[in-house]
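Lab notebook, page 48
Experiment: co-folding of the full assembly
Goal: obtain a model of how the components sit together before planning crosslinking
Operator: M.T.
Materials (sequences as entered):
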Amino acid sequence: MKNYGRVRALDGLDLDVAEGSLLALLGPNGAGKTTAVRIFTTLLKPDAGRATVAGFDVVRDADRIKSQIGLAGQNVAIDEYLTGLENLEMIGQLYHLARRDAKRRAEELLMQFDLIDAAGRIAKTYSGGMRRRLDLAASLVLLPPVLFLDEPTTGLDPRSRRQVWGMISSLVSEGATILLTTQYLEEADELANRIAVVDAGRVIAEGTSDELKDRVGGNRIEIAVAKEADLARAAEVARRHFPSEVTLDPAQRRISAPSKNGTSQLATLVRDFDGAGIDIVDLQLHRPSLDDVFLTLTGHQAEEEKVAAPAGRWQRRPR
Amino acid sequence: MATAPAISTAGTRYKPIAGRPRIVWAFLDALVLAKRSVLETVRVPELIMFVAIQPIMFVLLFRYVFGGAIQVPGGQYVNFLMPGIFVQTVAFGGVTTAIGLAQDMQRGIIDRFRSLPMSSSAVLTGRTIADLARNLFTVVIMLTVGFLVGFRPGGTPFEFLLGILLLLGVSFAFSWISAFIGLLVRSVEAAQSGGFIWLFPLTFASSAFVPVATMPSWLQTFARHNPISVLADALRGLFHVNPALTTGDIRSALIQSVAWIVGILLVFIPLSVMRYRRTTAR
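Observation: model returned without errors.
Model output:
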């Protein structure tokens, strides 16, 4: 628990990150994600409650924890007027590596993070994506077993975001234990083994992405036919696959139905429509997005643009 | 989709050096961070301006604009002025620490430093040591300009060196006050104004630029006990530039100067380090 004056930032946040896995802390701005990270990284002391990181208590063993963790905070924490190499060398030396080791390690990291060509340039000249990569590299100088990544892709363009995601995924596959905070539903979906949804300082749901989605119901299939005349026939075909609950929307020439077994059903459905000579202009399999999850759990929308795309989408043009 | 590079576990090959006492690490970590801060000065043209040009400007303005109007008993104004302006300049130079720390908090790098297993005084000591280096550089420039416009210190080389050492002490002490201010404020802008604002009355209502005797009596009381006056007078004594000062005056000013420097450090180092331990990025 953590209070700021009369504001309670964390209120019974209960978390457990399994070793070698990534837990995403998903929530809107002000949910308490950064406060939680600051407590785990010993930057803040909790007012009540306890937490352990790598087996050490965050209050009693704060010094011990520091050599077990890496932190990449919400802001890119690099020195603008040092070069990429100097930044990483400095962090290495502050981890008390020998000067020569700090330099070698810095070079290795610059190589791995595709920054070696910019190693001698001051970080002020780096693009947003390069800065993030340098920042991430700085948190990996000692390759600590536990990593805290606080909104690591905020403000990045989609390409750089994918790149950072790739790096995070490979860290997990190397065995790192990661707590990642994000307000991007898509990000949690992409990276996390488990997701904890936080709102107003407490965890309101926890589980795998699929488990969370199941809580708001399964998939839905949506079909749009080319000709209105085909609609009734299409509905008939659809009812063979979904005995109940086929809904019709004549204005949009759409049929929709809940789907239990997802993509395999789509394939047979498409074959049947082909066989019946019905032209389809749009066919979608909707997984409920984490946005739907958030809405169902909290009763309010997550405070950002909806980024989650339907999980499966096929389009056929009319012949 | 971009391909992810293989991130090897090579980091584990490098082991931190173990078994050195904390105090040694406090010093070594501070040096690493002092280097960072000095590099920043060298690479930011505006900062070099601040470090070099502003003091030159002050010397020339006071020497030629106010110098003619200010009478100092028994000596030349330029000799009276230079020690005062040295003290003022190094005290102002400490504000770099406040601004630098505020910047570190605003940019979030303070969170990274605090999450590292390094000495918790090093971020502050690094800044104050960097200020020492910058101030030494400034003093050398000012001495040069001072000589060109007629500054002629007397006394032995030993006394001269002692004077420079005293200035470095002033620099270090004021940088630590500045460090505390930098940690208290919420932005770089606030650090800038909050760092300077109290220094103006302190340096101007002192014997730094004019003899205290010319001030109204209520102000004289303040000015005489003002550490800036004490430090400037001690420096004048060491440089043998103010015939009005007796040996007793000089000895007393020196003792008081050392007491002020030590006192400021004893108060502001622990205060700042305590504050730093509870600081997070803004």
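Interpretation: Residues 158-173 of chain A form the longest helix (16 residues).
Next step: discuss with group before ordering constructs.
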